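$ fold --in a.seq
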Amino acid sequence: MMRLLINKWTHICVLLALLVGALYFSGSDLELRKRLQYATFDTYNKLNPRPASDRVAIIDLDEQSLQKLGQWPFPRTVMAQMVTTLKELGAKVIAFDIVFAEPDRTSPARVAKTLPEEETYSSARSALAALPDNDATFAKAIQDAGNVVTGFTRARPEETLRKPYQAAKPTFLLKDKTPFLEDTFGAPGIAENLPEFSSAAAGNGSFMATPDVDGIIRQVSLFVRYPSEKTAGFVPELYPMLGLEALRVDINPKSRLLVKQNKDKGALDTAYTINIADFQIPVESDGKLWVYYRHIDHNEYISAQKLFDPAQLEELRKRIDGKIVFIGTSAEGLRDIRSTPLDIFVPGVEVHVNVVEQILQGKFLKRPEIIKGVEASIIGVAGLLIILLAPFMNVIVLGVLTCGLMGGMFFGSWEMYKDMGILLDPVYPSLALSVLFLVSSLLSYVRSEAEREQVRQAFGHYISPTFMAELAKDPDKLKLGGEVRDLTVMFTDIRSFTTISESLTPEELIHLMNDFLTPMSDLVMENRGTIDKYMGDAMMAFWNAPLDDADHARHACLAALKMNEALIPVNEQVKARAVAEGRAPVLLNAGIGINTGPCSVGNMGSKQRFAYSALGDAVNLASRLESQTKAYGVNILVGEETRKQVPDLAMLELDLIRVKGKEKPVRIFTLAGDDDYAAVAGFKHWQTAHNGFLAAYRAGDFGCAAQEIVAARKAAGGKLEAYYDLFSGRIAEFTKNPPPESWDGVFVATEK
């Protein structure tokens, strides 16, 4: 299971599954998604509200009007006087955000019916019956004005008394109007005005407004279908919204609204338009308009009671003349308070005002159907980018990329809103990318922890804790599949191991081996090396893998210098044990071979068992050098390539040798000390004398070489005695039996 979880393809497949799910729900109407989307659009509207217009006025049936004119509903004679006064003040259109569905209870004839049947009231009944009917007075005022638009609203089906009056039937310039009819909001029931009012009016419109899931009105249906379904004797018809009907009457009471297919629409245009004169209103098949709100200051409202004060009429004329006038209410008791993106509590009449103003200004908010596809495309492209990069990118970098993509979406969405009025939702795509990033980060963490554990299991016993921590911190530095890289390879071996082992029991031998290999291993790991393997009394280690080490040759040499020092306490224990047992101690001494060169390194072995190891000529030569340490009487032999990388360390060239298995001779060096020792005057004197002897020897001047070796031995101060003895013997032999003229100073090693 864990192997499946840490697989990069599993990582990609999980993210792809999430992306497919995000795309599947990208066009959904889930409530949470809608709320987040609406909150974004509301914020845009608050940051960039629509500018004000001077074409519309509001007559407010406010608390002051109720106090002065009496309890609502006012007598229809009061409403008639209001209409007449507005007409006289130059109102272009008078639109009622009110329905007059029942007869006026204060009409004289209705009051007469409430009087007792007694004879004493007969004259009063006769006098009242002779007075004009209030509803008739109101209807005549509406007809005389010629510019009144009445309104109707929703009701329960059982409360519907009459079909809405249709002043001007809309014209459909469509091949098939069925989709538009079916998708438009359908009202199950209608509360319509008394027929005498509607028929006398220049127009009749719906002031229904359906809020979204959070109670805020953002869209209005420019048409209402009634009845909502086809029934016996009734074919559904479309009736305009109050504001749209007011605009039609403003332009021309005899004009019609045209519903057209948007044939020349661009990529971000709506499928339909509602046309009236030169105005084109963008809608989809549901006939809804996104309301582009502005702040309407309370000072813009005109209290209705002022229309009945002759002293204020001339001042009111300036605010009413030539305008579309809506009559609504801000009184809390009349319950026409709505919520908009800009304010939680506003009179419902403001919705109609905003609709008319934005049509007159040509400033629309649009969310055409194609936008859902655009949002899905954004999710798809950005999501694929994250998925493709996630397995190979640092979490922080991926987080910055994700935040950048999200920021770009919000910025692009804002610019489209501000410049084009396009409502592009940046929230859902951003949430989708956030989920992809979080899941990707979680999978990356699981995979990273698994890789660290794998690294710890594979290398925990072979490299130092510090080196291990660095490798675990960034497993990407580790390449286990196999590669060729420059390594510095070290072989160590116990001198005279056979002799030592013969004098010990198996338990003692194992204990001794552990005592030897533990400090050797510690020094390798402390100097950033990797232990390859243990081979009986021998150990192989290398540097510059699995992690890069620019100073791999130096670290290997410094580790070698400390190894024989580390054997001192071990030999003390060996000596103490031998004395206690009454035998002569056989002290441990290590031979070390070091070489640098290209090697193949990686996991090697079978499917059942493998190990991280290195192969190559450089490895073989390091092994050969270790085996030659005994012949040259030194503890450390270093190859020429290693010497080139650490020229500042104290080294002496020993010979030009052709080891077994190689045709090309190599220069070999002994490591005498670190860079501090290389700067000591005594070593420099020794090095000069040593190089002089070696130069004479290779030049075939064996007489001079014999003299120079004496000087070199003296400068060495007792060091390299076995080596100088070896070369003294060679010089004596060559003096007796000179080598052939083709002799190049190369010594051929016959043993591995």
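$ fold --in b.seq
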Amino acid sequence: MNIAHVSRDVQVPPTPANSGFRTECTKPSSDDFFGVSFDDTAENNLLSHVLLEVSFVIVVTRVLRFLLKPLRQPRIVSEILGGVLVGPSVLGHNRKFAEYAFPDSANFVVRNVGAMGFMYFLFMAGVRTDMAMVWRSAKKHVYIALTGFFVPWFVVIGIGLFMRRSMSDAYGDWLSIGVLGSSTAITAFPVLYPILKELNILNSEVGRLALSSAIVVDMLGIVAIVILEATVQVESGSNDGLWCLAAVLLTVAIMYVGTRAAVSRIIRNTPEGKPVDQTYIVAILVGVLVTGFVTDFLGVAIGNGPLWLGLMIPDGPPLGTTLVERSDTIIMELLMPFSFMFIGQSTDLAAMGKAWSDLKPICAIVAIGHFTKVVTCLLSGLFIHMPVADGLALGLILTLRGQVDLLLFVHWLQKKVIQPQVYTMMVMLSVLVTAVSTPLIGILYDPTKPYMVNRRRTIQHTPPSTELGVVLKIHDEEDTAKFINFIEASNPTVSSPISIYGLHLVEIVGRGYPRLLDHEKLAQYSTYAIYETIHQAMKVYQESKSECISYKAYTAMSPKRTMFRDICELALINKATLILLPYHKNLPQNHHRIVLVSAVLANAPCSVGILLDKGHFRSNSMLAVNPTDFQAQFHQLVLLFLGGADGREALYYADRMVGNQNVRLTVVRFLAYDGEGDDEMEKKLDDGAVTWFWMKNEMNRRVNYREVEVRNGEETVATVHAMNDNTFDLWIVGRKHGINPVLLRGLEDWSENSELGVMGDYVSSLYCDAAASVLVVQQQVLREQKHWLRRMGVGVM
């Protein structure tokens, strides 16, 4: 991962021999750099031209992103194409336009700032990379990484040597073939991370596998590139190859000792839960430039130092997170446009077209290399029992090209290992491979596919006297208190215990690899549990009820948009029956939580409960976790049974809760007048569930049951209002599936929170004026495998 030296050659015209020494003095203008000058030459308007170039490439890139978004193209494609468009290949091909808009003096500034942009990009990529993943990677990850690296590399080298005689001398030397092999084999973690994040598969099964494999490949790639660079120096006739290797080892050792000591001190001086002081951040960012200078001075390419520095800084809070939060936007949105202009200025499609007859063999070799990589990853995936579609998607992911590959191309170009025409071809092939692979990945891989289980995981279908698995999404201490209270009211017993899987979600900032952490397997618990008191309170409660309650704590680190997958994955792994989510209504800052709830409802592999607590399940006594306190609390529940699968699931959960001697339950069944709008099948299922419930609880004095006939939603609401005497602690309702539309006629347009369903939204609203908490239940929805490959039988295991 290197970047070439960027320098400016200043040529001084020779002085005529018969004129002696001639000196021409020009009065410098202090305002020339800022573009305020009566001289219209480009050199006197340097800043104006630089601003014009950068503004132009940003606008072009944004327009391309807008146009290519419907085609599922990632950001990197539009950025590279934007740089190429303003370079000599398209707009810069017009000499007059290039001299006026993109003069050499402005291009000099753009190239150097672009080099700095690449330095900071590599640094931030290093900060996000968790080096420990190399040692923690599972065997299958290492297996895919090694086969995906070495097989394409050997294939490209072998074919290149075989076709060497048919290639021109300028393109067919063995170093150029070695560069082709390494560039095809390497899969860069900094390239995959942003693309997978755009595709929303960063924390999916295949996404994690690809990132883990890429980290292993990156370590191999760093070693291979350093060795290749030393070989290039030996090939050039100098004896600096060993000096290059020695300089690398010495620099890394010094940086490791110094950086680790400084980082440890910074972390010690940072209060827990607080960001790192700005002074330290500035010092580290200056250190990026210093390390770039040192490695360049020692003969190692300028981009290596920032990368190594980033790798030595621990990812995540406090230091890694603060660095990313305060620097990422400036680097990606301000400095990187210079970098892509730098790439575009070195790209010349016209020159490549003229040499196309000589470039065909090289193009064929690269294409074969990428195809080999896809096939190798597919076969490796089949070996570890991956479906065909997933293995093919994994192969396409590992062929994605981006910023790191461009850096390598520039480096080898300026080292004269490859020719400018080969450089241009490699840049355009990188764009083509990424542009083709990205939409195919979206078509082939469905990250929600694992949650499409065909086995019932519902409360209704859970046999009596069996364990009930519940996943709790815990956000803060208030959630802890109400969940403890609610679980206690759910009647855990020795014969029917409850297994609780507490999950705390953390947005992944300053890290590049999403993780699902089991706290029982962590050596240092507090390192990852930001809300340690939450899990400790749940643990104390579990210990007081150890005969009927078990508890396991988890923390998931992932992007906000895909956090729902961690919840679904945890439920899937532990074969949970219910996912219980807290809900905070009418709070703008909780928009993300509402989106999260909707995503879980759409993808959950089991039933889902949404608990909107208004204080009845939130008690300070819960934090004391005294079993006698639980027995002293009395709960009055009411179930609004409107029928359907969700209503039946709510009925079965209410039946479980009424087993608690301190719970009273009122069940109100709503029926349509004269059976209007009834679905015969749903009606029969509802009748069967209600009959079972009443026969079981007919002699239970703590259970009341009645039926009400209504003609529309207005009468349904009127019935609820008549019941609302503020004596209830909890309303229980089914969400929506299978409800007779007549019962809610006229209310659908009024509902604002679809995730709660019409009735759940109403009883939790201010219009209902109900002080009770609300539990909305959705029964597991069995989904068909809709993937087109699976419909044809491909990838079915």
